[in-house]
Fold:
Amino acid sequence: MSLGAEDRIHQWLRQKLRRQGFHSVGDDGAILPAGGPWAVTQDQQIEGVHFPARTDPALIARRLLAVNLSDLAAMGAEPAFAFLALSCPPDFDIRRLLSSFLVACSRYDVELAGGDLSQNDRVTSSVTLLGTRFSGGRWLKRSHGEPGDSLWIAGDLGLSAIGRRLVEIGACHSGRRVQLPAAPHLTVREETLARKAVRRHLIPQPQLAASRWLALRRRAAAIDVSDGLSLDLHRLCRESVVGAQIDESCLSTEANFQQLCLKLQLQPLATILAGGEDYALLFSLPPRVRPPAMLGCRKIGRLDAAPDVWLISKGKSLPLPARGWDHFDSATVAS
Amino acid sequence: MSLGAEDRIHQWLRQKLRRQGFHSVGDDGAILPAGGPWAVTQDQQIEGVHFPARTDPALIARRLLAVNLSDLAAMGAEPAFAFLALSCPPDFDIRRLLSSFLVACSRYDVELAGGDLSQNDRVTSSVTLLGTRFSGGRWLKRSHGEPGDSLWIAGDLGLSAIGRRLVEIGACHSGRRVQLPAAPHLTVREETLARKAVRRHLIPQPQLAASRWLALRRRAAAIDVSDGLSLDLHRLCRESVVGAQIDESCLSTEANFQQLCLKLQLQPLATILAGGEDYALLFSLPPRVRPPAMLGCRKIGRLDAAPDVWLISKGKSLPLPARGWDHFDSATVAS
Structure:
C-alpha cells in the first residue's frame, strides 16, 4: 500500500475513533490503562482458508471479531481491547472492513485500540483481543475438568460446516439476505435451516452469555470448539487428564439436519463431530450443576477417569479419534 | 495447515515454553498478570513486501521482533509480552522461525505468550507486543515536541535502503556472513559498509537504550522512523503542531555512504530522507538537554513554531515534502 494511502486511511480511522474516546491516537502504539489480569487471544482470518475470495469485507470484519470473541468466551473473559493487523490487495475495500469492524466492536463494548495495515495478495487479517476477568469471576481453563463432570455444549455443532458447503456451491450473504444455490432442491424447512447455516458459518455467534455464567461457577473447564468437537474434546481431556464419553443422540437438535446434510452429500455425524468452525463452547461442570435453561446449553456426555474418548451410538461404545474434518475416518463413525 | 501438524507444532512449542515458565499453556488464550499501564504495538512482516521470498525463517523472526521493539522504543516502553500470528505455505520451516523468535525474545526479556498458526500463499506474520512503562519513566509521545526543541536521531538513516537494494541485486545473509553480489565492483571500505547495510536491513536494531534514557526525561517527543525520515518527521510535527528544519550535513556520518549509493544507482540524499525501514528513533528534546555520548545520537535540526518543514542544504532552505521513497520527487532534494 502506498504510504499516502495508508496515512489517509489512518486519518479517516482516527476521526472515527476520536468520537469514541480512543485511548491513544497518533503514536507508534496504544496506551492501555493499568488493569488486568488480562486474557489475550489472537486469531487469524485468511482469504481462501477461512472465508472464500470476494467475501463482503463487512462479513470478514464481523467474522474476525467473532472468532476472537469466541476464544475469549472460552477463557471466561470480558472483551475490552482489539488490535487489528490487516494486509490485502490494493483494490480491497479497507474502509468497509474497518467501518464494520468498529460497528461490531461497539456492539460488544470492545475498543479498537491499534493495528497495522499492509499489502498482500490475499486478504489476511489477525486480531489480538484483550479481555479482563468478569467481576467476581474465575478464568475458565481446559484443565479444570474432573472425572464424573458432565459435558455440555453451548451453540450449534455442524451447522457451520453445512454453511461452508453451501457457500462453496454458490450460497451468498448480501445485506441481510442469504441467497441459496438453485441446486440441490430443498424443502421450505430445509431452506430455513440452510439460511441459518450460511449465517452461522459466515458470522459465528460467540457464546459470551454462557461464558459469563461459567466464569462465576466454582469450577468449570471450557474450550472453544473451532476445529471440530472430536478434536477439541480430546484437547480438553488431555489438559484435564481425563477421558470422556459423548452421546450421539444429544449432539444436534436441529430438525431437518440429517436430510439437509444428505442433500449436500455430507455425512451427518462426521459433520457434527468434525465439521469445524462451530465456535461453540464445550464445557464441563460438576455433575449436579446445570446451566440455566435460558442459555440453551445441551448436555452431551461426561468425563471419565480412564483416558479414552468414546462415542455412544445406539447403545454401542465406539472409540472417537482426535481428528479434524480433513482427516476423519468416516468409517469409524458411520451411522 | 493440517490440524495434526498444527497440534504437533503447538506441543513442540509448549515444551520449549514450559522451560521458560510460560504464563498460559494449553488454553484458548494467555493469561497475563495484572499490571500496566501497557503500551501495545502491532506490526506485520510480509514476504515480498517487507522481505524477499526465500528469506531464512530465522532472519524473518529476528526482523519481526525488531520492528515491533522499535515501535515500543518510540513509546518509551519496556517490552514484556509478544503474540505471534503466522500464516505460511506448507513447506515453510515454521519451527526454525519459532526457535529463532524465542531466542530473540529471550535476548530482550520478552515472553512469547500466545499466537495463531494458519496457512497462506505468502509468509505473513504479525506480532502484537505489550510493554510496560520504565520504572519512574514517562511515555514518549509524538505530540510532546515544542518550538525551539532540538531534533535528534538514534540509529542510521538510509543504510537499510542500501541494504534492501543490495538484497534485490543478490546479496544474502547466511549464518553470520553477508555475501555480496559480484557487481557492482566495490572497494574494501565500501564492501564493509555494504555488509553493514545488508545486516541493518535484514535485522534492524531497535533503539531501546535511547528509548529508556528518553523515557526518564521530563519531556521528549519521539517517533519510530520506519517510513523514511521525511514522512515520519512530518508526522511528529503534525502531532506536536510545530514545523521543523533539519540540516543535510548532519543526516549521515558514514564514510563511503555517497560513493556506495552512487555505485548502486541510489540518490544519496533521497536514500537518507525517504529510504524507509530505518527503524531509527527520531526525537526532540528541550534545547539545552543532550543525550549522553554513549548513546551515539546525532542532532539533526530543530522544531519551529511555523508549521513548515525545511531541509537546510548548503546554506539554502528547501521545502521538505512529506513523502516516502516511492513518491519522492528527487528533483526537490537533488544535491
Observations:
- Chain B has a mean pLDDT of 91.
- The longest strand of chain B covers residues 77-88.
- Residues 3-133 of chain B form a domain with the 60s Ribosomal Protein L30; Chain: A; fold (CATH 3.30.1330.10).
